[in-house]
Design a protein that fits this description.
The chain is mainly alpha-helical and 128 residues long. It is 66% helix and 6% strand.
């Protein structure tokens, strides 16, 4: 998952934490009704007013939250507190990490990484 869709993971997580998992059965269909309605009303044009830099900043922030949690899982170490506590203690992770878990995770990432080939117009496209 990448791009703006990554931001949805945080929103879904927050909705589940606030309203419980059963609420997704109501929220998802409601979003499915609202989104086409907004399209018919051409409200999407208003979202172009949001700066690309603001969207990139939001996605970078969400990426930091996701990565800070996953680094601890990769090292097989219990994560500390919230995002700032996790980021603040990353420097200690090397001494605490289970290096067999790190090697397994790195191997998995290397094996599942797509390779790039020249697509139309010389633009790299992912090939699995």
């Amino acid at each position: 998952m990448s791009g703006p869709a990554a931001g949805l993971t945080v929103l879904v997580w927050e909705a589940v934490q606030s309203y419980g998992l059963p609420a997704l059965g109501e929220l998802v269909p409601a979003a499915g009704v609202v989104q086409p309605g907004m399209g018919v009303l051409r409200l999407g044009l208003w979202f172009r007013a949001i700066s690309v830099a603001a969207v990139h900043g939001m996605l970078a922030g969400i990426g930091m939250v996701l990565i800070s949690g996953q680094l601890y899982a990769l090292g097989g170490v219990e994560a500390r507190g919230q995002t700032l506590a996790k980021l603040g203690s990353v420097h200690e992770l090397g001494a605490q990490a289970d290096w067999a878990a790190v090697a397994l995770g790195a191997g998995t990432i290397a094996a599942s990484r797509p390779r790039l080939s020249d697509g139309p117009g010389g633009v790299g496209t992912a090939v699995w």
